Structure formats: C-alpha cells, structure tokens
UniProtKB/TrEMBL annotation:
Gene that produces this protein: gbsA
InterPro entries referenced in this protein's UniProt entry, alphabetically: Ald_DH/histidinol_DH, Ald_DH_C, Ald_DH_CS_CYS, Ald_DH_N, Aldehyde_DH_dom
Pathway listed: Amine and polyamine biosynthesis; betaine biosynthesis via choline pathway; betaine from betaine aldehyde: step 1/1
Enzyme class (EC, first level): oxidoreductase
GO molecular function, one term: betaine-aldehyde dehydrogenase (NAD+) activity
Swiss-Prot/TrEMBL keywords: NAD, Oxidoreductase
Organism expressing this protein natively: Pseudomonas fluorescens
PROSITE patterns the record matches: ALDEHYDE_DEHYDR_CYS (PS00070)
Entry protein name: Betaine aldehyde dehydrogenase
Ranges for domain Aldehyde dehydrogenase: 20-478
Protein family according to the UniProt entry: Belongs to the aldehyde dehydrogenase family.
Enzyme Commission numbers on file: 1.2.1.8
C-alpha cells in the first residue's frame, strides 16, 4: 500500500464510506508512510450504531447453525488471504513475518472454534431447570446482549479483534468495531473478508479513528449494550467511566507485569529460552510479557550469563529480513516511551546488563536492542509498571515462598510462567500465583478453548473459551405455574 490515495476507513450498513478525518499510517521499520486512512467521528459512530441497531432484531433470531456457517466462511476467507494478511501485519505493526503467521493462524482458529460453539447453541437453548416445587416449571435461555462496541489495540491486530468479534457474532450480537488508528491496515483487510461472508447489512460495522473521536462516543452511546475493550489501564478507566453513564456491560483486558519463575531444579537452557520468548516476542509489546524474571539464587549467576548471551545474539532487523528474530516497536511514541523507562530505571539505580539502545546497523526505524536489567529497586517504575517493550528485569530469590510473594506483589495478575524439573513443585507454585493463566515449562501458547484474562487490575471478565461467548449473552429464566 502507498499513501497516494486515502483508504476508506468506515464500513457501515454493508457499505464502505470515507470518514471526515485523515489518519497517516507509518511503517515502523522504515518510518515511511504506508497509507492514509479516513477516520470517523461521533457522527460516524452514530451511523454505525444506527445500522447495528436496525440489524439486531433479525440477526438475533438466526439459528446458531446459521451464524456458525458465517463464521466458518470468515475463517476460510482469512485462510485464503493468509499471505496478504501476514504482509500487512508485518509492514504496519513491525513484527517479523513468522510472528505475523502465528497471528493469522490464531484468527483462523478463533473463528473456527466459535463457529463450533455457535452450532452447538441450538441444542442448548431453553434448558429445563429443576425446581423444588411441582407447582412450577422453569427454563433458562441465553440470548444475545444486543449491539456491542469492540475497541481493540495495536499490538496484535486482527487477533484481539477475532477474540471479541467471533464470540459476539456467535452469540447473535451486532457489532461496531474500532480498530487502533496505529495499525488499521490488517484490520481493514479482515473487514473486507467479513464483508464477503454473507452477514446481513449492519451486523458488522467498522469505524477507524482515534479514541477521543470514536472510542469515547461508542462507549457512551446508550444503545450499545456492552463495551469490550483491550488496551492500557489508563484508557480502560476512561472507557469504564463512559460506559457507567448508561450502565452498560463492560469487559476490560488491560495491563500486566508478569513474572517468570525459575526454580532451583529448572533446566537452564529451557529457562533462558522461555525468558527470552516471554520478554522479547513482539518486541515485548505484550500485556502477557513476563518482564519480571525471578531466579533461584543457586542458578542466578549462570542463568544471567546465558540470558545475556541469548539477548545479545537476537537478530533485530526489518520484519521481512529472512534472518529476523525481533522487529521494530510500533511507532515513535512507543519507542520514546520505552527509552524513557530505560532512562528512569538507570536513574533509579538499576544495573543495565545489555541493550537499552538502537542497534548500530539500523539508523532508521523504531528498533531497540533486547534489554536486561538487574538490581532493580522494587518500588521503581521499571519493576512495577508495564513497559511494553523488550525490557527484562532479573532478580534472584532464596526460597519458594519469597518467589511467590515477589510474583504476587503487583497491581496486575494476568499471566505467569514457572520453570521447574519438579512437577509437584511447579503445580504448587502455579496454584499459589495470583494470575489468570500460568504456563509450566511452556512457551506462551494460547488456545481458543482456554480463557484469557487475569486477576486484580489486569481484567474484568474473560475472553476465549465458552467464557468468551457467555460475555456476549444475557441469561433469561422463564417460570410458569403448572
């Protein structure tokens, strides 16, 4: 794509439209413009909600089998354009092609999974409820909650969209989607696939734009029954405040400051690979980044030497370089934000082991070498706050109890990882951690069948699995006298 013409950034009522705003889209690896996308405003949001509201009564009456067929068609469409979507993902987001491939495959798997759940809904509807009285009979129904607003971030374009959109459509909801204005290109291609899937007009709507212009009025619209948001805690609070004005349902998937715990009997080679993947995949731009690495004292010295060597050996390069291991950060604002965290960490007394600067061979693009700190004060922002960049903090511990206390000492509780050769100890530690998902001796694999979300300030609600579908359903009981 080029910026020679403006791409329509509004899909409303089954038609593409130009918006009133212009959004310049940048390639983070080259700092060159990729495209200009027209963005919407409050008027566009109003039109999209109008279209979704008009379509809801009929879409809600469709069978689960009918909705499942549409979801399978979307999955097939994504599969057919897999290479195209990978290219857009890498050029717009800055991630390597092999990471983009994982993203696209996740989108396919998610739509397929929720197609199956949709198809199963017909047999589950109107279930009988046992009552203690023979004078009454009861049944329970799950019904779509209505028009829903979906607000998604820039770090995993299409993926977080699929995690919300597939269950919303499976439930029978109509949707207004706001993709990130930073990474709209893969989302627009996905929207084009959805537009060809056979959905009735108005069931799916998309409005590109900024959070202020599009996200805020979407969250505040009284006709929107639910808002599902993924992004920063600061913006999540604003979304929740807007939604509270009309007392609508809210799901939030927010930040994390997760730990990877290396117990005394861990395989060091495995521990180093998991720490590297947990901190540097997607250039660390993950809410699930295990950026606090806790290592048993007996292993700490050797572990740090190996992790430093692994980090320094990571090839940071253009996303389309065949040898790339880590790409660019998403834009200049994020790049400067991460550099600011590094500078403040140094000022707070943390010890820089490696990284912290641009690779010498990459004078352009938002590239940063994998960065490792030790001796990080427990009250510093580097240890406590989500950085969203390729920065790891390493600390040793003397006992299992100390490790668990350090891991749980956080405002967040999204994920955690445990590396141990003792299965019983690993399970014991996993059970003690305040996190929504714990990996044991495993990379950060995510399946549509398992829940996504966390404790404390990381989440309200859960995505994926049957819980993701239930998030877009209302429960209705019907009781009658007999």
């Amino acid at each position: 794509m080029s910026n020679s013409s403006t791409l329509n950034g509004l899909y409303i009522g089954g038609e593409w439209h130009a918006g009133s705003e212009s959004l310049q889209v940048i390639n983070p690896a080259t700092e060159e413009p990729l495209a200009i996308v027209s963005g919407g405003d409050e008027q566009a949001v109003n039109q999209a909600v109008n279209a979704a509201s008009a379509a809801f009564s009929q879409w809600a009456k469709t069978t689960g089998a009918e909705r499942g067929a549409v979801l399978r068609k979307i999955a097939s469409g994504v599969q057919a354009r897999r290479e195209r979507l990978m290219q857009l993902q890498s050029s717009n987001n800055g991630k390597p092609l092999f990471e983009a491939a994982i993203d696209v495959d996740d989108v396919i798997a998610t739509f397929d999974y929720y197609a199956g759940l949709a198809e199963a809904l017909d047999a589950q509807q109107d279930r009988t409820v046992d009552l203690p009285s023979e004078d009454f009979a009861a049944r329970v129904r799950r019904e779509p909650c209505g028009v829903v607003g979906l607000i998604v971030p820039w770090n995993f374009p299409m993926v977080t969209t699929a995690w919300k959109l597939a269950p919303a459509l499976a439930a029978g909801c109509c949707v207004v989607l706001k993709p990130s204005e930073v990474t709209p290109l893969p989302e627009l291609e996905l929207a084009a696939i959805i537009a060809e899937s056979g959905l009735p007009k108005g069931v799916f709507n998309l409005v590109c734009g900024t959070g202020l212009a599009v996200g805020a009025p979407l969250a505040a619209d009284p006709r929107v029954a639910k808002i599902s948001f993924t992004g920063s805690n600061a913006v999540g609070v604003q979304v929740m405040q807007r939604a509270a004005e009309t007392v609508k349902g809210v799901s939030l998937e927010l930040g994390g400051k997760s730990s990877l715990m290396v117990l005394a009997d861990a395989d060091l080679e495995l521990a180093v690979e998991l720490a590297s993947g947990g901190g540097f995949f997607n250039a660390g731009q993950m809410c699930s980044a295990t950026s606090r690495v806790l290592v048993a004292e007996t292993l700490a010295g050797e572990f740090l030497l190996r992790l430093k060597a692994r980090a320094e050996g990571i090839r940071v390069a253009d996303p389309f370089d065949p040898q790339v291991e880590m790409g660019a950060l998403v834009n200049q604002a994020q790049y400067q934000r991460v550099l600011g965290h590094i500078d403040r960490g140094l000022s707070a007394g943390a010890k820089l082991i490696c990284g912290g600067e641009r690779p010498e061979n990459l004078p352009r693009g938002y590239f940063l070498r994998p960065t490792i700190f030790t001796e990080v004060p427990l009250d510093s922002a580097l240890w406590c706050e989500e950085i969203f960049g390729p920065v790891l903090c390493v600390r040793s511990f003397a006992s299992e109890a100390e490790a668990i206390a350090l891991a749980n000492d956080s405002e967040f509780g999204l994920v955690a990882s445990v590396v141990s050769g003792d299965g019983e100890a690993a399970e014991r530690v996993a059970n003690a951690l305040q996190a929504g998902l714990v990996w044991i001796n495993s990379p950060q694999v995510i399946f549509p069948q398992t829940a996504w979300g966390g404790y404390k300030q990381s989440s309200i609600g859960r995505e994926l699995g049957p819980w993701g579908l239930q998030a877009f359903q209302e429960i209705k009981h019907v009781i009658r006298a007999v």
